[in-house]
Fold each of these.
Amino acid sequence: MLRINQLQLPVGHSREDLTAKVKKILRTDKTPDIFVVRRSVDARKKPDLYFNYILNVKVDRQKEVYKRCDRKQVQVFEERPYRFPVKGYQGKIRPVVIGSGPAGLFCALMLAKAGFHPLLLERGRPVRERLRDVEIFWEKGKLAPESNVQFGEGGAGTFSDGKLNTLVKDTYGRNREVLRIFVKAGAPEEILYDHKPHMGTDILCNVVENLRHAIEDAGGCIRFGAKVTDFQIKDGQIRGVVLEGGEEIGASYVVLAPGHSARDTFAMLKERNIRMEAKPFAVGMRVEHPQRLIDQAQYGLERHPVLGSASYKVTAKSGGRGVYSFCMCPGGFVVNASSEAGRLAINGMSYSKRDGQNANSAIIVSVSPEDFEDGGPLAGVEFQRKLEEKAYRLAKGKIPVERYKDYKDAVLGSSAPGDGKEQGKIPDGFAPCIKGAWEYAAVHQILPQELRAAFVEGMEHFGRVIPGFNDGNALVEGIESRTSSPVRILRNEKLQSSVKGLYPCGEGAGYAGGITSAAMDGIQVAEMVAKHILEAEKK
């Protein structure tokens, strides 16, 4: 196989155009088989936009073709598909996996396909039932504590933009395997090669459901409404799990993939003296702009007929803190993502078409254990809770919304709350795109002064990068507090916690940051669990 790098064609080109360009580069008259590895957008000459490609090509008489083509652009390439290290297990040891977010689903799937018949325990409900519960919450404000945006089949990422890009370096092929499995489960094939792949929440729901069926078809078992409240531990070894209601399930190999919002699970781990530590994360606000503003800035057009809604990624520094965009949702919605009574947390979500009127992104500020009032491994959790309580009180459980001008003026001392005839007025023709009730309120009161000042400094910097980003009519909504886990459950080189046989996994455990990296960690942990089971049976 040959690999072609740096092939460029105008956005909107045909398949024939691509084939002709490949044949020209290879200096061949024969039509090769072309496989897109990576496609990214080059907008440096906007509004003239281009796709940059990396391609794998199969062609007859490869050696002859390779000799006469440009070696700077073409190389010989050998694809090495991912291989799970264990196949056809026929023993009797059955691992337990806790949590059905990406980490838990992929861990259970790999173990099931290898013959281990894992038991997957999920505290929440199946994704279709969960979807109904979430919609009821957005429409009527009735929160289901175990079935919401944070808890239930698919994890928190199910109600998001469904981004699948990751910065995790991967030499084992796990990243590619995750994307391949997603496509097999119903995701669009474009995720295999788009530089910034995404699914959208509507497709994610179908994919999650199909992953469940794949686990069951391979011999795994999934139980919903099965909340783990305790562990059975003897002589430093896991012996089983205890469910809410008292049911005990024996297990010597337990994967803990709880998600970043499983605060009661973190508290249980602390009580059981399982080693954890507070870790850095970030908090901030959702910011909404008209999507046409972002499209114009990124593509030079208010709406691109091929590329659709544009995205962005911005970063800045404020003192020693990072300020950056997170979970950007083109054509998306801001959603009430709360999971605890009396506390409010928000997130962003897009459907696969990304055809909403507004763009939104979290603009977040980094925090570290030094910012937390109390010490201990759960200090970050309490920090989140205090901010979420303030946000809840501010608008009586609704999502508080404020114009950026009013937010900035209050933070910089340019005006006092209530001053100015325009304060509290949403611009005509620019309504917030929100899932859940909302209310205009003093959003600037939520964050501590140092963090809200950093937020404003970041917004002003981003306005110099993307014209109009710091426009006074941009909408600021809060609070975005669940960007990543506030704790890390410590694990050793064998991926086990301080309790032998207990494997912390995924984002909630502090080892991932997004759907794909969580799924990759789930695969990695599954590999280790399988290896350890085989080693134990040989003794």
Amino acid sequence: MASIFELKTNVQELSSANEGTSRMEYDQHPPTRDVVGNNFANGAIHFRFQTSGQRWWLPSRSYLRMRCRLTDGAGTPLTLAGGVAPNMGLMSSLFQSGEFRINDKVVSRVADFMPQVDALETRLTKSKSWIDSVGEATNFWGDSQSLRQAEVSSDGTVVKGETAAAPTETQAGRVAIGFDAAAIDSNIASYVAATGVITFAIGINAVALPADVRTAFPAGSFFTYLTGAAAGVRMKVITGVNGAGAGSTTTIVVEPNWNADVAATAGAALTLDFARITVNSIPSRRINEFELIWCPPLSLFKVGHAMPGGRYELVLNPQTITSYQKRAIESALGIASKNPTLPGGAAQDFKLDVVDLYMYTATVEGPRADDITYLLDLEQTRCQSEKIDNTSFAQKNFDVSPSTYALTVAYQDLRAGENTALSVSKFKSYNAPVVPTTVEELKLNRMFINYAGQNLPAPDADPSFVSGTDYTTQRYAETQIYSGAYFDTGGAESISEWHERGAYYYFSWPRDGTDRSTRVNVHQGFANGTDVTNMRCLLFDHSKQVARIRVQDGRVVDVQLEDA
């Protein structure tokens, strides 16, 4: 650090306004094949470009832009009743792998689990401010499925002044919304916790129900009991169809609520008074065609300095047409899994169409690099998976790079990518039914990692997350400390967002430079009764590689890659 008494005495010591660069611009590069509509899934997508002379390329400021159309199966705009939202971090969900080449030499690769790697990297390296603003606007990084759903629904709304301490609310009693007065024999409302379905019926000697209860409880409003053990618990209305997808004038569906009081109320709900709560809201963006901006989680795109002339190529491998359609959305919990429209098939629940896809490379003018050998410091992230067999304390074994400097553990449902209610970019696991009713990954009660002769955390982690108890704060805080997010001026995601997106456990792992260990043992145990039928353990290893690049006569002649 320079001394506070050290004064600059020469103009050459002053920082330049442009830091030695000139004419920064973005160049547009199309893929080498057609990717529009159903052609998107037809094999690898290549982007090729080159720079020469005094043009330098800035990897960290380059990105991809995709234009998409998300509609129902018939091609018309979505509504809230459909329960369809774009997936969190949508663009990465469409790809299974990718790599970057310099002069045909692969220098960076994500071989599998592209959306999982991208989700972790985003949460590790981006501040809460970035995720809530730029991230949400450019790639739907918000944790709330219902808010993302509102953005792409023709009848979507958002709460006015969402950041305000207390938005204005209105509560309407049953008579005001078309039901009869509360009494033992009045109109009744029974709730099934497993599906989120509330069914209205006529009690003995009661008057008729409203012609369509969905008009009394429109999507986006809240149903609440006024008496009983569940009094005051709000349940957001997401659709006016039943769990099987058939229209009904006597049922609504609310977001499944894991509150034990609500579940216990189901049988007694027949005689309870109820009401509707609404909040002041404004229309959302209500878009069915939109742009996505994405930087792939490849190590080369983390390089912050410019690179001289060379031949460059980005290769992305999309999911199959069935997979990328399912992975593109996150359907609301408590309603049936959604089915995409496939080529030649009957219209189903939704359809994602790619309208166009381009790569934009940031380039600047700088000094010509004729004869030079330079190094790239590359930080790679890889993901591996192992099935959780039972709740007992046991270990899973993984092999990692000898240059690993950090490790991350998370748990995810095996059905993610197949059941549209389960996002591939969230680290969540649910119980056995197709329509999940409870989360399982937060039932972890013991965990530690053994690598290079060291156990972390030490002593073993002993988290607990049950009704009335949250002992996950230390794990949340320690993850933010290890990653540096704890000290970020833009803030870190809140603990509730950490739970909603899925808990992950990140540990920095400094060690002796001569240590070449490659075996990692992850030890974990879960509370009795945890349903691990569909749970897998994800291990992310973060490692260092060095690319040595030799330039002669203004062009790259050799590329070598090795572990740091």
Amino acid sequence: MMRLSALLNARLRTGAFLLLVLLLQGCSWPGGGTATPAAVASAHPLATQAGMEILTAGGNAFDAAVAVTAVLAVVGPHGSGLGGGGFWLLHRESDGLDVMIDGRERAPLAATRDMYLDDNGDVVHGLSMNGALAAGIPGEPAALVHIAERYGKLPISHTLAPAIRIAREGFEANAQYNRLARFRLEDMRKDPETARILLQDNDIPQPGHLIRQPELADTLEAISLHGKTGFYRGELAAKLVNGVREAGGIWSLDDLEAYEVMERAPVTGNYRGMRIVSASPPSSGGVVLMTMLNILGGFQLDTLDDATRTHVIIEAMRRAYRDRAEYLGDPDFHAMPVARLTGAEHADRLRESIHLDRATPFPAGQGAGAAAEGMNTTHFSILDGQGNRVAATLSVNYPFGACFMPPGTGVLLNNEMDDFSAKPGVPNAYGLVGAEANAIAPGKRPLSSMSPTFVESEVGIAILGTPGGSRIITMVLLGILDMADGGLPESWVSRPRFHHQYLPDVVQYEMDAFDTELVDALLSLGHALQAKDSTYGNMQAIYHDRKNGRVFAASDPRGVGMSAVSVRE
């Protein structure tokens, strides 16, 4: 269904925007002749438009990814930004290259293992969540430059132009922005710079209020002119470091100068004849996803009744997240048995431990439950006319990150330090527990759940991902299972969701996910259930049907995003 009100309120510019764009949820365009389909699905109409503008101007999917990332940094500071990081999964059609660009944040070089503990060895509430001490060294600016220079066709000055324009002219805060701002309002008010720029008179922006970010525009221009050095060295770097240190943080100029983007081989595997390509550590996404799919591959899911099918999916989630807690972390600091965890033999053993007639809870442990908010972090998917594709999940962690902005920079900092195990076995803000593999260390990248993913088969190619904290991986799983059953993007993004993450030992589910009969059946099997009073996630998905050349794109109805499909002849 067309989101007409969202489009009108977004104050979209036409610019060089291609006329053959279908601004529809779940849109498609038939192939045929010499027409080549292209598509963008993102969490904000302005970001989708920017991506399509770049494709229309002759850029490829990687150029469009730079533009979409930058615009999301401007219009969605609650989910991502230059002060955060992310993973960009790239496929280059000309040579079949699949690579993950790791722009994940790093712990400052002065970070210590116990920096968030008190004298008694207990975690200090909020210390890894709010303010300058909660921020890791951002990776997004370096990733933008890396992608533009190594994989793009257009100069970065071109691909950053839409974001610079919107930052200067302003955008209207939408309902999602205001809801998340209200969620973090008291923390945002504690930092004068954050409040000045992202609030209105120290309160939630009113309808029609334009959020203008001239300092952020200047920062984007510095990157546009000077590349990576425009952010990580020189005047801007000094402003970032001085602002952080004056507010009690521990950044140094060496931290910024030392930051490097990493190129990593994705996690790959197979499920029901489909090739899965997903994020590799320091993301847990690909490993956990393949573990779950490998377990489920031993069941004939389509032959099971609804209760049994749901039960075995939950049990697969439970076991894969246990592996996550025990084994995964930064691959540059910790050796992990990725091949074993994603192998058939391991899945066979885990599958054998599943009982069809009862749940198998693990020993009791701590776990606070997944965070209530599911729109923090963001995702976009892109397909260009040459078959290149991008799935990118970006984050500042909690909504509006650390709620801290170094003066004069316009850069809202992340609070990704909370993604480390501040104390192994103690849950973070998302209820996730970790072991020594994810303990804090200088220069280390915290474990993530972000799961940008490709799914390839003889009949089609899917590009998908979502925000949602610890629940990201299970949302992607449910989308892939839907695809395997013949569903298209509109179904993947809109289907009701459920989740289990090992600890706490409870199945969380959206209200529409389980009917009364299914609830009763799962309870009788021994599952603890928790109905959520709100939805979660914001999936952006694209599917290219190889048989007839059609392209389908969809933006999650839970959000305010937009999908677009075009044809260039």
Amino acid sequence: MITLTNLAIQFGKRVLYKDVNIKFTRGNIYGVIGANGAGKSTLLRAISGDLEPNHGSVELGPGERLSVLEQDHFKYDEYRVMDTVLMGHQPLWENMKERERLYSKAEMTEEDGNLAAELEEKFAEMNGWEAESDAAQLLQNLGVQEDLHQKMVGELSNTEKVRVMLAKALFGKPDNLLLDEPTNDLDLDTVEWLEDYLGEIDETQTVLIVSHDRHFLDAVSTQTIDIDYGKVTVFSGNYSFWYESSQLALRQAQNQKLKAEEKKKQLEEFIRRFSANVAKSKQTTSRKKMLEKLNVDEIKPSSRKYPGIIFQMEREPGNQILEVEGLKAVEPDGTVLFDDVNFNIEKGQKVVFLSHNPKAMTALFEIINGNRQADAGTYKWGVTITTAYLPLDNTEFFNSDKNLIDWLSQYGVGNEVMMKGYLGRMLFSGEEVLKKVNVLSGGEKMRCMIARMQLQNANCLILDTPTNHLDLESIQAFNNNLTLFKGNILFSSHDHEFIETVADRIIELTPKGTIDKLMSYDEYIHDEGIKEQKAKMYN
């Protein structure tokens, strides 16, 4: 249990939030949402004690333990992997070290003997005898194989370190758990394991999660913490419930003719439908708990601002879109990213490209955009096709001291007023349009790149990991528009919800050819036949 009393945090003159009074109760998982810079990670840092609030207090339940997913991946480089995970349960780790010190003595005094007996008793209470096997199992589940458990953390790759940090946070079932972007750098199988793990958390545990992964938040959250314009509010339900219900409430608020009883009836019907869908999901324990608390009176219109992302086609595409034959891409070190890639894109298709190696999708997109030479094979665009490309690395676009208006004007026809309109739709208002592009944040650069794409009025969009650096509002708006877009979309993504709702075809690039399926993403990842096929094509 975590209690925030009159909490206030500000940096200089900027007040993130004040007068925050919330009790986070046991048995719940709270998904923390809010725009970039709203203070999501800051809230977790204040709770963990890493940041001193300007006012107010943070209290845990008596004798409760708090565990945090640490972001410093170099902190434990000098420790063994196994020891790092065990440190996640600090009282147990200190007990182990003290026992080790006592038992290493040549002779023990009577006092030492009494202390040893006391330590042994506490060690057993904390399940110390199972600690190493529990830690090893946790590491295995997170994809850190047994041969790495005795290595130094500094010898691991960054992806492996992320998993060790996560194992450390989860170890010993802490009473309170704070997870900031826990799915970063995890593959799909590991994310699914984490969903299942959190879906069955102990009734005594309290979990707070900051994440941009909507599918993950939906799978695990029983409640949502919304940080919006300096206010921190708790709602029952997961992200989808919060988003859909707040949008419904907003539409109701804008409809002056709708009577109060009709509004209530609509909201009750929404809760009924939502509950029926959610009840079928796999984490039944936490889901049922969430459903019990859904309440019409809690549903409020959101004041959150969503970018206006609208892709329009200047020209209707013909039947010939893109034909690829025998395409191959090899890295300078000799790594084959893909080989023998053949496909023909049909009119209106929205295709997601997958691979075990994310460099494969970038290589494909760079080749078909004429920025990289294929190592073998050919590609041919239809004569009616116009493309707009969102590359993974946009650095070269922003090596300029132009302001946003002048920068955007390079990519389309129109006057200053028109450019301000495009930038306004992407949430750049007032004086912000005069900012130099070389000082923009990652999220601001992505919104500029999306504005640039909209100016091109292309009938085929090529998107390399488009949700990178975007906040949930931008991801949601982007996602919504792509589902409505009538042209072709070729994209890669690690956002489960994005793929599931946009893609109608899946092409997986491997060193031994492609797996090409007309099916939903959820069907694809759970199909046993495809799993067997993938195992052969990657080995």
